[in-house]
Amino acid sequence: MGRTYFVEEAVGQYLSDLSTKLKPYVTGLLIGQCSAQRDYVIRAVRTPPKEEQKEDSISPSKLASVDEEWITTHASQVSRMLPGGLLVLGVFIIATPELSKESQNALRKLIFSVEKSLTKRRLWKPAEEEVSDRAALQICSATKKVVCRTYDVQDPKSSAKPADWKYQTALSASWLALDCTVNVNIHIPLLATSPNHDLEKNTKNGLNRWSKQIEDSVFLINGQVKDGDAELLEGQKKLKGNTQPSTQFSDVKVLTQLSQGSSPRSTATVQVCSGSINLRGAVKCRAYIHNNKPKVKEAVQALKRDIINTLSDRCEILFEDLIINEGPHKKNFEREYHVLPQRLFVPVAGSSVMLSDYKFGDEATGEIQERFIEMLDQSVQAEDIHVAEEMNT
Prior knowledge:
The protein is globular. It is an alpha+beta fold. The chain has 7 helices and 16 strands. The strands form 3 sheets. The chain has an 8-stranded mixed sheet with strand order 7-6-5-4-2-3-1-8. The chain has 2 domains: 162 residues, 3-Layer(aba) Sandwich (Cytidine Deaminase, domain 2); 177 residues, no CATH class. About 1% of the residues have low confidence.
C-alpha cells in the first residue's frame, strides 16, 4: 500500500496557476510534514528563475537541462526558513506531454540530490522509525493530470511506488505549535594544532557536541513531563469548536543535563588551545505538529530539531556573511563580537503555521520581503513580519 499525501487546497490552486505559464516545464519543492500514518503537504514553491532566464524568456525545452545544483541550493535555502516539524517533502515538475517520459527520470535524480544536500547540513540523526519516502509529483500542463510517486531516499536503488494525492480544505488551520526559549552558552575551544583557525569547522564540531546535549534533554510541556507515546492533546479536547485558523500553543521548557554519561568516572584530556569561540544568547524555537492525534514524542522530536537547526543555520548565515563582507582570508583574530541574525516569523494564509527567516540588525524590511518572494514565492506585508527575539550577541 502506497503513502497518502493530504494536500492543502491552496497548493492545488498554486500548481494549477503555474501550469498555465507557457514554459515547457516548471520545477519546484513540496513542503510539509511526515507522520507514520500519512503525510501533509501545506506549501508548494517553484524554483526561482536564474538571472539569465529572467532576461531571456525562451527557456531550454529539454529536461536534460534541468539545473540540479540550482534546485538543491534552493532546497537548502528553503529548509532554513522552515520551523520545526516542516521539511522539504519532495519535488514537483509541471511539463508538456512531450516531456512526460523524461520527467520521471528528472524527478528521481532531483529527489536524491535534494535529500543528499539537506542531510549533509543536519546535525541530528534521523530516528530508526522515521519516514524516508519522498514525493515525486508530475503534472501534465495540457491535461492537468497529476501523478504522485514516492522514492525511499535511504535506498539509492529504490524504485517508484504509487502514492495517493488528496486535496483537503483548511488542512493546517488548527495545527499545534510548541514554543520555547533556549538559553545558549556554548564554549568551543580552538586547538593550537587547528590549521588557520578554521572557525567554521570548529564551530560545527562544537555545535555537534551541543546538539547531543539537546537530544538528551528533558522537555516539560506546559509544566509536565509527558510519556512519549501519550497523545499530545490529552486533557485538552474541549477546544475543538473552532473552525477559523487558530494556533494552540504549548509552552515548553528544556532541561539539559549537567553531567553527561551514566558512569561516575570521566576522563579529562588536556589540549593546548590558541583561542575559543563563545556562543551566547537566548534563541526562540518553534515547532508545528499536525492535529490528527499527534504523539508527544513526535512533537518533542520536531522541537529538538528546530532548536538544533536554528542555531546551526544562524552560524552558517553569519559565516556566509563574513566571507562576502570580509573575504575568506581575514587573519585578524583579536577578540571580536559578531551578532548572530535574529529570528522572525511570517504567517501563511489560511494556516496556523508560520514560516521563519533570519535578519541582521542592519537589514531592511524590503530585503526580507524580497527573500520571501524569491525563495518561497510569497509576498509578505511589512506588518506581518514578527521579529521573535531581542537583539543579543
